Amino acid sequence: MSDLLFPAEPGQRSIARELYGLARDQPLISPHGHVDPALLADDEPFPDPARLIIVPDHYLTRMLLSQGIPPGRLGVPSRDGSPVEADGRAIWRLFAEHWHLFRGTPSRLWLEQSLSSVFGVTTRLSPATADSVYDEVAARLAEPAFRPRALFERFNIEVLATTESPLDDLAAHAKLAADGWGGRVISTFRPDDVVDMEFEGWASRVGQLGELTGEDTGTYKGYLAALRSRREAFIAAGATSSDHGHPTARTLCLSPVEAASLFARGLRGEADAADAETFRAHMLVEFARMSIEDGLVMQLHPGAVRNHNRWLHAAHGRDVGGDLPQATEYLHALTPLLDAYGNDPRLRVVVYTLDEYTFSRELAPIAGGYAAIYLGAPWWFLDSPEVLRRFREAVTESAGFYNTAGFVDDTRAFCSIPVRHDVARRVDAGFLARLVAEHRLPFDEAAETIVDLAYRLPKRVFRLGDAA
Amino acid sequence: MSDLLFPAEPGQRSIARELYGLARDQPLISPHGHVDPALLADDEPFPDPARLIIVPDHYLTRMLLSQGIPPGRLGVPSRDGSPVEADGRAIWRLFAEHWHLFRGTPSRLWLEQSLSSVFGVTTRLSPATADSVYDEVAARLAEPAFRPRALFERFNIEVLATTESPLDDLAAHAKLAADGWGGRVISTFRPDDVVDMEFEGWASRVGQLGELTGEDTGTYKGYLAALRSRREAFIAAGATSSDHGHPTARTLCLSPVEAASLFARGLRGEADAADAETFRAHMLVEFARMSIEDGLVMQLHPGAVRNHNRWLHAAHGRDVGGDLPQATEYLHALTPLLDAYGNDPRLRVVVYTLDEYTFSRELAPIAGGYAAIYLGAPWWFLDSPEVLRRFREAVTESAGFYNTAGFVDDTRAFCSIPVRHDVARRVDAGFLARLVAEHRLPFDEAAETIVDLAYRLPKRVFRLGDAA
Amino acid sequence: MSDLLFPAEPGQRSIARELYGLARDQPLISPHGHVDPALLADDEPFPDPARLIIVPDHYLTRMLLSQGIPPGRLGVPSRDGSPVEADGRAIWRLFAEHWHLFRGTPSRLWLEQSLSSVFGVTTRLSPATADSVYDEVAARLAEPAFRPRALFERFNIEVLATTESPLDDLAAHAKLAADGWGGRVISTFRPDDVVDMEFEGWASRVGQLGELTGEDTGTYKGYLAALRSRREAFIAAGATSSDHGHPTARTLCLSPVEAASLFARGLRGEADAADAETFRAHMLVEFARMSIEDGLVMQLHPGAVRNHNRWLHAAHGRDVGGDLPQATEYLHALTPLLDAYGNDPRLRVVVYTLDEYTFSRELAPIAGGYAAIYLGAPWWFLDSPEVLRRFREAVTESAGFYNTAGFVDDTRAFCSIPVRHDVARRVDAGFLARLVAEHRLPFDEAAETIVDLAYRLPKRVFRLGDAA
């Protein structure tokens, strides 16, 4: 067993190894992520190594951008006509030349571990070995054992949640359900593009929502009914949670009349930025009400400034590494929601953050004092060994382990799923090992806790079935 | 000697043990806390284990609330007629069923260590052992050696400060002084309920203050005179400090005319929230002036949003776990006070925080640059091993050890006082051991420092007598 | 080799020693600091130990001030007629009496290490040894080997940047260049006093700028031309960077007409605080434009509230320990600059902070996503072992090592330069050793990285020549 990420001190390391051993082979619960369900519905072979691993991973392309290498040279599609490298091998070589930039980053860890544990490639990546690593991976990708479903099974994924807009017809999930393969791939209801008036084309999307559901989304009442109807459809497609990616954590209870009037203003194209923020805030409370009725667990992902890098957005579009975190206030922002439903155990809100400087001040005390709130795993820029450790160190004392929701990989990089969970299990084992070594927790309780964190807790919190 | 909380690395651990050994038996200085002085004045036996340990401890009841267990089921008195469990054993059992929630929390540490070191109960708490632990503790509580005064002596408490409103008649302290027992139990002057215009019934409290002192508190001048008069009474009851629990750290110097006019507006019931904040801010400077005259050390506890959990407040009242921390700004907030008296060594202000993300940015630089400012120990949500460690790591480099005020237990849980101090001594020993192990401080200086932190420094900073 | 600052765990320590061994003897690159160039131009012997070490070091005098010792007693010149101790030995003794205040601080480390490694004084400082330490240092200072240039050579300084106002005639640098000594001492262009309308005497300084350059600085156009002309002169004096010390990180793109009008308002003495902030913000973008033309690397040092301690400023003037950090927002503040030039690899902006609670939330993601941004070393209050470690732990995962700019000593204390760099090298070695010990980085890559951080990276980022 590798000692990757375990504390160096031999006593703690040995406890960490033992704890990790209990978690390592637990099935993977992936309650939130961005894998394309068509990947598994179609089960086609993956493309070449560069297109599989580099082109779609904005963690990788943004690091090279930060050193002056434009994403087009790494094959990221452009929408402004700027040149895009088409040759997978050339992309791979350019990337390998800059591999040293990733020292000390989680990307390095994920890629290296994926290469070895998924593809069996143990050659160290470097400019000199770029071609041979590329060839080894390419050879694997041609084998049936490296098709998506085969990997899904090998990865021991018990459940994988994808994320779709209410406008999605869920055809990929229907295909998966119909063909009897048996892997549990469920959807997540993510309504941002029909909730956020600042989303390009919001009003026309609201129109589509009406068409899709047969509700009159020209009225606020019909809009809510349409959302309820899509939630039912998502639940039928296995969804157990919704997801809400807002710029802030702000919540607000408008009266039905106020909400309807604001909604109408938005449809008329007269809403300004403050209106949009008000409507998003209000809709979080509206969704909380729906959650209490239909049982979907809410996930709240606030704090990203989308498309901050304007040139990058203009040249390459959304989700290519141009988003940035901003300071995020939770306490006052969540107060209206907490006042309304914070003590209702039927409601469950998993709160994430990009701002670790809220861990001990706001997030842990809130989760440790309200029945409805759970803390999501460190996310995105924080989805890394050092922060996973700091998360436990900062939140456990106020919130304990059992107000956290377990690890969430939140990735579109299918092949990195096992290593991401493995990293979290290793870091949790290291943290628990310290508690044991410092006589703060008996070993047997740490042993129960590591399995809870790895498996039982996310399953229970996300209502994915009884975790015995 | 137990190695609880000492770093795992054997070299550091051995230094930590040695340092801790020097601090362990130092008398306890408890310059700030919320023990009821009647407890010691009356010296009655404690009630049953649940009523002693669980019912009044909002750290415990809020954790269960966060998992959907309402505080009434744990015996917390209600004021809205909601049901309250009356049977101590039933409360204890319910609590034991949820004991796993406290893994990794200071509550677990405090309770476990109190059970063993105060009550001699070493049976591990669990659902299965709930009854036997209950019975063992109950048996102890019936013995004379477990009455409050006997414990006070066994705990080696040199001085214990309680906290009272200026409206308190200090009868318990008078009784203690009169009966010749000899334990040093002193009061602390906490004027929030006659200073904060938003405090329910403020104006009528100001009236009571007038009656109690014979001053005309219908005028601002009489109000100040009444406060001065109560401070004298508190000083006569042993007080060496005042305490101020404000929502923010804001300070302000109004002119006497402005202050008088604002005070009058408040009495007429015409003050709004901004007025109340202005008056609180101004009164901190007013109290600083009084401190320079009468020598009371000021304590400033800002940053709590009181009664944030509205349902909890409605059902169970104040101080039952419904308060939450908010982001707290110190630099600009304290500027008026610092401009006026920050360099005056006669003034001493001990500043606390619920927002650890001010440690290195604001608190340590301020304390390291103004003669009047000392840093209070991490408080409330931060009163825990991990934060005690992060506090030293974050503030020592700018403020040193000698601009900190030593450990403060700030507790109403009398039986937990020794273990809380013990935890702080252990964490400080671990931190100093690291400095020694990394050749940053010679052992003999670390040895002097650990005793200073445990005993001499709080005694000196809080003006509790010469610490030889 | 001393194990100072290395982690205690023997495995990690041994890796750290080995890594440090590779960095220890690398030449010192000091791309930003405040040494007086006349020191090296004149090469006079240093004054007495107190005047060399204590009087000018506000880290030292402010710590004593925080315990009620006024700076005049430590020889800090006063401008209000308050008494100033003139006897170096008396200053030294008073300081030694308070030496315990510095336990755990970087000042202690720097002074102790400077005494031993620069002056060969290994007697431990204490009240009892004050005189003998003083005499030993004084004896050394009389020797030719302890003149500034001799020390510069012994310190193995490859390049030392001083900092001057555009109004400086650079005579000291000219003298250095003329006399053929050969040590590389370069200037840095720091235009705050002609940019910040709130700087005392700004308008008359702008007038001097016109006289010095022959440009008509009564107009905005002439003002820009004058700044360009001074930048050329600085570049001729070896400068490769500019430095900007603003209260905030705010940037702004005014149109030329708006800028000219604001500038004129300032000259007329009609600008208020908001105008001054707007102009500073705008000028950062203006300087970015100039940097793209002339290649000077920009340094941005935001977040200090200057002269916060009003009494200290009144009595002793600027730069004597009365500045304090404030919370600093980077993301929205830098957006106008990033929108304009953030992806331009010709621009290079090294961003510093006094607010470590931006490391993982703002600074690392920005530096890891924009080609123009590099992270400067922890600065001033944060220039210490614990924060240097936390910096690596917090920023590496998003920004890697290669978006950081290497260590910057930023000091006016010439004799402390080697130990400051040594501390940074030791801390980086400890951090890299942990990555190696936890199997996150192979030793050979850590070995390359430590030398990059110590030498090659600062040389490259600050455009100080090719680092082979």
Quick rundown:
The first copy, chain A, is mainly α and 468 residues long. In chain A, 50% of the residues lie in helices and 6% in strands. In chain A, strands 4-5-8-9 form a 4-stranded parallel sheet, covered by helices on one side.
Layout of strands and helices, then pairs:
The structure is a homotrimer of 468-residue chains.
Chain A: H1 10-23, E1 28-30, H2 37-42, H3 49-54, H4 58-65, H5 88-97, H6 106-117, H7 130-141, H8 148-154, E2 157-161, H9 171-178, E3 185-186, H10 192-195, H11 202-213, H12 220-236, E4 241-244, H13 256-267, H14 273-294, E5 297-300, E6 304-305, H15 310-316, E7 324-325, H16 331-341, E8 349-351, H17 359-367, E9 373-375, H18 385-399, H19 417-437, H20 443-461
Parallel strand pairs in A: 1-2, 2-3, 4-5, 5-8, 8-9
Antiparallel strand pairs in A: 6-7
Helix pairs in contact in A: 1-19, 1-20, 11-12, 13-14, 14-16, 17-18, 18-19, 19-20
Q: What does this 3D model show about the protein?
A:
Chains A, B, C: Pfam families: UxaC (PF02614). Chains A, B, C: Its EC number is 5.3.1.12. Chains A, B, C: Pathway: Carbohydrate metabolism; pentose and glucuronate interconversion. Chains A, B, C: It catalyses: D-glucuronate = D-fructuronate. Chain A is built from 20 helices and 9 strands. The first copy, chain A, has 468 residues and is mostly helical. In chain A, strand 8 (349-351), helix 17 and strand 9 form a beta-alpha-beta unit. Chain A has 2 domains: 10-46 and 145-461, TIM Barrel; 47-144, uronate isomerase, domain 2, chain A (Orthogonal Bundle). In chain A, helix 1 crosses helix 19 (417-437). Chain A has helices at residues 10-23, 37-42, 49-54, 58-65, 88-97, 106-117, 130-141, 148-154, 171-178, 192-195, 202-213, 220-236, 256-267, 273-294, 310-316, 331-341, 359-367, 385-399, 417-437, 443-461, and strands at 28-30, 157-161, 185-186, 241-244, 297-300, 304-305, 324-325, 349-351, 373-375. The first copy, chain A, has a 4-stranded parallel β-sheet with strand order 4-5-8-9, covered by helices on one side. A 3-stranded parallel β-sheet of chain A has the order 1-2-3. In chain A, strands 6-7 form a two-stranded antiparallel ribbon. Chains in contact: A-B, A-C, B-C. The interface between A and B is large, with 49 and 47 residues.
